[in-house]
Amino acid sequence: MKLRTLLRHFREGAKNVVRNGWMSFASMSSIVISLFILGVFLLLTMNVNSLADQIESRVEIRVFCSWMSIRPSGTNWRTKSGSCPK
């Protein structure tokens, strides 16, 4: 494409934007609002993921078994509930 043709397209586009001001405003407004909503949802998603990672790093599981309840090897360690033997 020649440079003159490209410049002509830009000139005609600028004229049409000025000529149809309200339609240009409406289309640019809808794009700005859509991008704003997309940004809000992206920020919300990133914050929720960060919060979930922080909570996940704080989770701690502790298991307490009595040394008196340990059975010799070869026996079944699981009870009906799947917890430590009593």
Task: Using brief descriptors, characterize the structure shown.
mainly alpha, rod-shaped
Structural overview:
By secondary structure, this protein is mainly alpha-helical. The protein has a domain at 8-59. Helices cover 64% and strands 0% of the residues. The protein is built from 2 helices and no strands. The radius of gyration is 33 Å and the shape is rod-shaped. The model has no long low-confidence stretch (mean pLDDT 84). This is Cell division protein FtsX. InterPro entries: FtsX. Keywords: Membrane, Transmembrane, Transmembrane helix. The chain crosses the membrane at residues 21-44.
Average the pLDDT over all residues and give the rounded result.
84
CA radius of gyration is: 33 Å
Number of strands: 0
Q: What would you call the shape?
A: rod-shaped
**Estimated share of beta-strand residues:** under 5%
Low-confidence stretches: none
Largest sheet: none
Number of helices: 2
Helix percent band? 55-70%
Distance between the ends: 84 Å
Protein name: Cell division protein FtsX
Transmembrane segments: 21-44
InterPro entries: FtsX (IPR004513)
Keywords: Membrane, Transmembrane, Transmembrane helix
